[in-house]
Amino acid sequence: MDDVRKYLQSQREQFEADLFELLRIPSVSADPAFAGDVQRGAAWLADHLRSFGLPAEVIPTAGHPLVYAETPPVPGAPVALVYGHYDVQPPDPLDEWTSPAFEPTVRDGNVYARGATDDKGQMLTHVNSVQAWLETVGKLPLQVKLLIEGEEEVGSEHLEAFLAENKDKLACDCVVVSDTAQFAPGVPAITYGLRGITYFELKLTGPSQDLHSGVFGGSVANPAIALAKMLAGLIDADGRVTIPGFYDDVAPLTDAERAEFAALPFDEPKFAQQLGVDALDGEAGFTTLERRWARPTFDVNGLTSGYQGEGAKTVLPARASAKFSFRLVPNQDPAKIAAGLKQRLAELLPAGIKMDLREFHGAPGVVMPLDSPYLQAAARAIETGFDRRPVFIREGGSIPIVNTFAEALDADVLLLGWGQNDDNPHSPNEKFSLADFHRGIAASAALWHELAAIDN
Amino acid sequence: MDDVRKYLQSQREQFEADLFELLRIPSVSADPAFAGDVQRGAAWLADHLRSFGLPAEVIPTAGHPLVYAETPPVPGAPVALVYGHYDVQPPDPLDEWTSPAFEPTVRDGNVYARGATDDKGQMLTHVNSVQAWLETVGKLPLQVKLLIEGEEEVGSEHLEAFLAENKDKLACDCVVVSDTAQFAPGVPAITYGLRGITYFELKLTGPSQDLHSGVFGGSVANPAIALAKMLAGLIDADGRVTIPGFYDDVAPLTDAERAEFAALPFDEPKFAQQLGVDALDGEAGFTTLERRWARPTFDVNGLTSGYQGEGAKTVLPARASAKFSFRLVPNQDPAKIAAGLKQRLAELLPAGIKMDLREFHGAPGVVMPLDSPYLQAAARAIETGFDRRPVFIREGGSIPIVNTFAEALDADVLLLGWGQNDDNPHSPNEKFSLADFHRGIAASAALWHELAAIDN
User: Is the C-alpha dihedral spanning A256, A262, A265, A270 positive or negative?
Assistant: First the structure.
């Protein structure tokens, strides 16, 4: 490990240069206009893996390609599969970025760029640690498989089929994912629970075309008002979702978990201040950490209707639409939620309005066993890389394929987040701490050692 | 009048060519990008008036210019002032136009273009009738003043000051405005009542920037949900506006008016079918004509928030905004409504959200005296031009400056609409019947004769 550590130290600038190169590729998976850049992201990654002797494949899918590579098998040692993604969220709204979204810029020790933390920077820590073992020891103490996809931000549509068709190729004892955050700066964490998600787009149509609001206003239902009423009707004054059966399967927090969360160093007024709000808001009866980590939610993600340009246009719009989503917790079933939603929207739909509901990706929430030897090995590796034992926390976001991995490969999933909560992963000015980038590489390098030492 | 009639007959093609030329100028007053085209519209109109010997002025304002011209005074005869506008609504959404918005195209006897009916085509009927008198009789039997503005679609911001400062120049006995519709094809109408309007934009701000809906969802108020709840909270299940005092000053319909409206040939199921809706909707307790003409309304004109592009983005948006408006009836006061709105929105504003309310143009509703000799003269002129006596109706739209004219110049306002209700004045595929265009010119030519015969 000494040679590995020295190598990591010597390669800091090169690792950063590599990261910046990947960040310059606008691999936005949601927008077809960027399809060529997503391809370019995959090609860059495969070339990079080959540059230190790891045969890498770019595997086409019906959507964006996967990148796959593996180190040689090590009999008697476990097999670790690293999952990450090289695709990124859309960068909108562009005018709120201090420096351009795809021009990585270092300020105060952080690199700012779309994908810095989610997930190019975090994903590369494992690539770099593998490189370090190969370039020094010449081999890894266990077999590491790297599976990096290009569709995480659009629901990993084609990954599930790939997993199902490649169970032997991908067989492993644990899956390593770095796409979450530490609890706070200097407080590394292992995330043992994730929320799920189910995402929808509701399109309402009233009159067959936009109408003059003076000539027709008051005589025909306005789709934008109908949309407002229907969305408002999905959540009550206590912040509880009104979909029938929505809370039926929600796994309640244990008293131990509530106590553990309450003991974490979390300051609600400071949190509100960081977000720029004068009051927090959410489901009645729960703390902010509980609301974020272990309670389901309803969020409207986008609204569109009528005239949105400069000035005033007196139009009664023909259409109104919303994108919205529910964060789910164990053991809510996305399909059951979708069925309840349809029932509730049908109740809320006013006369004279037609609706069309589109369902995007969905994934259930997940909780990992806290006593897994792989989780405990990861905790030791993090202590090596970060000089502090991690806390065990949950996370409000979704990594939809975590469930898929756990089910398809029957493996424990280790969520080792190197990011920070203010990294703005889906917002303007996304960033990643370069110090955490290097600590993550060191922790990853130690992880291969710790996992190899598990009595398999 | 015979020579005038013959002249009108001979000039049909030329009048259409002139109209198409004006329609090709995209004089969109709401959008600063079109400011040069608005100027061009004014210049075209002034040049056109000069082409048949009428000295015309382009009068600059702090916004878009006015065009003014007048025929010589006729002692003993009344003075008529024609008001119209050469500016047009924005053409969005552009992809719903069958032929381009600013390329006038004739189909089935209608000319399709933005501004065809509102108000370039209707306004030009009076320009053409003045031309006909001048080119045949050599003079008009009364003085006609033409005041054509470029800011009607943005609230006529600078007209009021101009009227106040030019009362002598504009002094008249009646104001003639053709910016409304006939009751139906073949059923010409004089509009004796108009609704007013008050228009707002509400901007809500939650967190200081867009957030990841997984990491933060459920712990902070979502501005798009807040907007939905606030808009939904402005109108109740009976379609009644919940602003305090909103209905206090509403002039109720008389039994005679309700009977008159009920007697008009109006088919509610056919109307619903024309609009493409399977049910009509509006304030409980009123017929569709009553709702459109004589009851106040609430309409959302536009919604904007979060991610509106392709695919799904899991964002908790920092901002959400709506453009919305109320149609007002006599004797509601826009200022009082605005004050009540602010009070109601303050009640509806959730914790953690800041609001900013912008007030656009407003105008009260108006009703004209049915026994005015000018109105009766207009009815005779319409009978000449359209071969049928007009019905007396109201109109749901606003011509905000009608009130201003009535007050500033102490004159009756004659609303002589040559359009049809399906002309799509603020929608894609705006049109104007060329037959009605020529009937309007004939009626206008007769109007100068009928008005001159009034015992002044």
Answer: positive
